């Protein structure tokens, strides 16, 4: 979580203003902001606006006080049915920690923020789930749909949680100014490697892995306090902010320099800044519109008003199962090794697997439970005998189901020809089946490789491990309450194999009964019912 990131940062006394109060604009305040805005007048000045059929949403209903902020924000972002009448032609979104709090990741500067608690000398809250299992939320997925619709032109993020990239935002349309906790980069050939585990270092340091392309040691991408912003990311961000007519700032306090000054670049070209945040920001006076409220609620309302569906997020993880074989000296038996490993290398962790159970219908095969990584099983079998083994993958905390089953035929025959698999088509099919059946644990082969010396077969499996339901429906009927607390343990200043500095250890050394609060308690079903009561013709929310 941001907990781990905060622990790994170098210690500094002054982290800026923290503990800022949160504000929620009332319907009356939102109405006043709407009436005082110049944006509505700009829309009304579009030729033939009143008689045109190009803006059916704005004319189809009377303003609802409960969604007034949505309408006003929409008027800043409005994409009419005729492209020639677009108000926002180059929308850039600038995101901060506030968009990930609903994903279980604490923010930094709020009343219960990490740096707020740190300054008060209080222990940090326990993470609600492992960092590597955090999933994109409503805002992340709404931005994916806005990009696919051609509305969002570029996304700038200060977050290191990697959720924008994981959600499906194209890499070329994303600038991660402070890095990505799940990415390594080769400084020699420039290749980026996205991992399913949290990289162990920050501060652009060398990691324990090498680039498969050129052999150079890889480095992490997350900045420490004194590190400069990456030139490539900064250059793209500045370019798009300069040409943006709207920069939408979501869930950011706009305090960290120089990143916080990027939205101001749009003002020189006549662009506007829109801020949606629970706290006041130093850039509020420069903004055309400021909404104090939950980002998820505001963006969901905008998406509904635009008749755009917020897509579900289906998480697919990969692992490699290999069988390496060799003949005994008398050539009567086959000595074989079964290995379940990460696709990122045999020494890389496999964070979503807790244990592996291997069994077979054969009476001579003794079932075994593999508890520790690397998961390996050695056996000897009569050479002429073929059989089938069952591999039960027990998922770790934070996954949407308890396990997945894989049937693995073993006949010790190695073919030099490897079948071709369409990964994109397989991923699409897995996601569709998971959503249709509302269940995780489905698997499919996406890659198969053979080696002749030693005789080896390597199979890469894709499996659905989570589904993010925006209406709050769980991914599986089983009780997941045990996975919601105390998943990240801290003992003697060590977390996930990373030792914190002695200066910082005092903030993480004792347990705390503080539970992260869910802010706002927003319910899509309730809001949908309220909207339909006031306007029966309004479309239902997409879920």
UniProtKB/TrEMBL annotation:
Question: Which cofactors are reported in the record for this sequence?
Answer: Zn(2+)
Q: Which reaction does it catalyse?
A: N(6)-acetyl-L-lysyl-[protein] + NAD(+) + H2O = 2''-O-acetyl-ADP-D-ribose + nicotinamide + L-lysyl-[protein]
User: The Deacetylase sirtuin-type domain covers which part of the protein?
Assistant: 68-309
* Positions bound to Zn(2+): 186, 189, 211, 214
Question: Where does this one sit in the cell?
Answer: Nucleus
Q: Which GO terms describe its molecular function?
A: histone deacetylase activity, NAD-dependent; metal ion binding; NAD+ binding; transcription corepressor activity
**Keyword NAD in record:** yes
GO BP annotations listed: negative regulation of transcription by RNA polymerase II
InterPro entries the record matches: DHS-like_NAD/FAD-binding_dom, NAD-dep_sirtuin_deacylases, Sirtuin, Ssirtuin_cat_dom, YEAST_sf
Which catalytic residues are annotated?
A: 178
Q: Name one Pfam family in it.
A: SIR2
Leading EC class? transferase
Which Enzyme Commission number(s) are listed? 2.3.1.286
Per the record, GO CC terms?
nucleus
Q: Which UniProt keywords apply?
A: Metal-binding, NAD, Nucleus, Transferase, Zinc
Q: Which family does it belong to?
A: Belongs to the sirtuin family. Class IV subfamily.
What name has this protein been given in UniProt?
A: NAD-dependent protein deacetylase SRT1
Species of origin reads Dillenia turbinata
Record lineage:
Eukaryota, Viridiplantae, Streptophyta, Embryophyta, Tracheophyta
